[in-house]
Amino acid sequence: MDPEGKGPPNRPEQSDKAKLKLQQRAERKEAKRVEKAAKAEVAKENKEVKAVGKEAKETKGKEQSKAKSKEVVQTQTSERTRKYSFSKDVSRLPQNIQVDDASVRKKVSKKLEKQNVPERKASDRKVGLFSHLYLYEKSSLKQFTSELQLVNSPIHPAIIKLGLKYAEGRISGSNARCVAMLGAFRRVIVDYKPIDIKSGARETEFDKRKTELDTILKSCISYLGQCRTKSLSMGNAIKYLKDKINSLPSDISVDEAKKRVVNSIDYYVQRSITLPGSEISNLVKGKIQNDDTILLIGYSSLLRKIIIDAHLNAQKRDISFRVIVVDSRPQFNGKVMLRHLVAAGVDCSYILINAISYVMKEVSKVFLSAHALLANGHVLAPVGSAQVALVARAYNVPVLVLCERHKFSERTQTDAFVYNELGDPDDLILPASKSRRPSIGLSSQRNNENLFLLNFLYDVTPPELITMVVTEIGPMPCTSVPAVLRMRQAEGDEPDDGDEPEDKSDDKREYKHDPDIVDYFAKCED
User: Fold this and answer.
1) Rounded to two decimals, what is the model's pTM?
2) C-alpha distances out from residue 222 to 79, 111, 112, 333, 474, Å
């Protein structure tokens, strides 16, 4: 005990332990305080980060909302633009392939009424896939001709006569139709007499008469379109003629302008139809070898000229070849080709199109004509040409398309549905005198509401089936059409405006070497 006797004596070891405990307690308290401060700092930082993130998110949301609204506006604008562009493109489509559009038919009716041209009634008994095309039946021709105004009519009598020949099928073929049309236009221009021009008028009057002459030609073109759909070669010729009239200087007299336009028509027929046929014939006839067998389909003035020239050349070379003419219903144009070739002494055979697979193994070359050569290399040709080319491809027989440059078109087409020409369905019906079993014929097809006959005149042959295209500038692949079109535009193919028209009799002798493009001057003077 301590000296005072109040308790046990103090030991130095116990005081050290107490101090240690106090120190440890203080350290733990300090550690807790530091840890709490650190947690508070971390919580503060997290709160600040969340606030920043929330603010960024709100900003981003606002930006996204603005971007989204802007995108919606752009989408709506582009949609409106697309719809406008689509409607604009549709309005640029040819009217002859928008027959199923009531608004287009209404515009055509107003246009014809304004031009004093009667409207021919189109048939509604069409296959649904071809409802956008015109279908003119020969039975509607009588009603159409009864509405023609022969007195004080804006349509020249030569045009009226030509249109009736088109409608009746008396003039067919791209070259024949184009030449006959240009001949009729030539007669229109020769007979053109300006209205209300005094005899002493100055020689600057033609500039005021361009619109008048253009109106007359538009009425003639509309009338011909009502008789039969224009071919693509006719469209190219019309474009050439209008460009020529519009490019005439304004300081010339009406008579001088008429002479220049007539000279341009003669120049076009010579440079675009007559001479190219001779050039193509010279290129092809030398390629025909001894014992060749050439297959043709239908009738073509160019093919007829080439075969006859090749036959005369073969006689000089002491070689021989034979020709197989393929024909099909309903026109049987191959009989016309056969008649001309046999008369010229060519060795010929005649078959129907359903027998081509049996004779193709004997064929060495296939010659096809073309209604038009399209910009994407496809060939628009008389119906049956694509089938012949397909069979020839299966037998590895070369297929040559013979076509002048004036039939090249900037149009593109991959099928025969968008653009075609529909023939009279009644042509498919055999008369009772020729039908072996008239009791099951189609003579009563008009009474059947569920039966529609399809008689389309052209089909489209893809370039994969064509070996070569032969034009007046030489052989080429189908894919060279765009280059030829650009070259034709660069050349201009225009005669000198100062040239006087050649003598009519000289022109007559010059055109005689092609019997099908016969003397279109005589056609106009009938």
Assistant:
1) 0.74
2) 36, 9, 7, 28, 36
